[in-house]
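Translate sequence into structure tokens.
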Amino acid sequence: MGFASPQDGSRALDLSVHESSGLPVTGVVETYPAHHVVPSHHHGRAHLLYAAEGVMLVQASTGQWLVPPTAAVWLRPHVEHRLVMHTPVRVYGIFVDKEVADGLPFKDGVLHVSALLKALIGELAQPIAGRSDSRREALLSALFLEELGGQRPLPFHLPWPVDGPMQQVCGSLVRDPAYVFSADDWAASLAMSSKTFHRHFRKGTGMTFGRWRQQLRLMSSITTLLGGAPITQVALSSGYESHSAYAVAFKKHFGVPPSKFLSTVYRP
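Result follows.
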């Protein structure tokens, strides 16, 4: 299975207008191709990253998260972070004034994006030059912050290796979580022994290959689950042999079975 190494992007967005804006909340939207990398950087404001389409990996000094289109990553001001696009991605970046952000009840991590929050993100990502109605701006920002503060943190943390060959394995699995290669198959493809492969993988991620892949599959299955697919179909497309095997693994990771996840964690 081939792997195209990510390339650091040559485009650099000018975000100075957001850093210096008098508005409490501003935003921007950008589309990136698969394998694009946004190099490490930070912002003076808190930052909400939402991928409306595609899957991206956010690598920050405080953690690493795989983000599907149903969730967003929240980063506090001045947190170094790097973005890796594993598929074509449409990314919304929302910037929140530091003093306002300090009042929000969570630290860096992945949050659920409700339908209302998604709509507000789209509105706030409009060019600042076109946002002249101060009363509407105040209402939008206030509603955004209220809705954001009520979102639930999600267990979407995924350790990412720094070793090149292990990054290739992880990147390939992110693009196809159900891919059937075993650890021994990956070891053979990298011309190393199974023992060496397992040692490198655990050193790079802090997890066994099996546990890491299971966590990836569970996290990736959320998008299909939210699309209304039957749980059995979600299980099989995610690489599980049966509905029951998927349900057991899902409950162990998320704390509730798939059938209850939508109504409890993902509120309408």
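Note: The domain at 164-264 is CATH 1.10.10.60 (Arc Repressor Mutant, subunit A).
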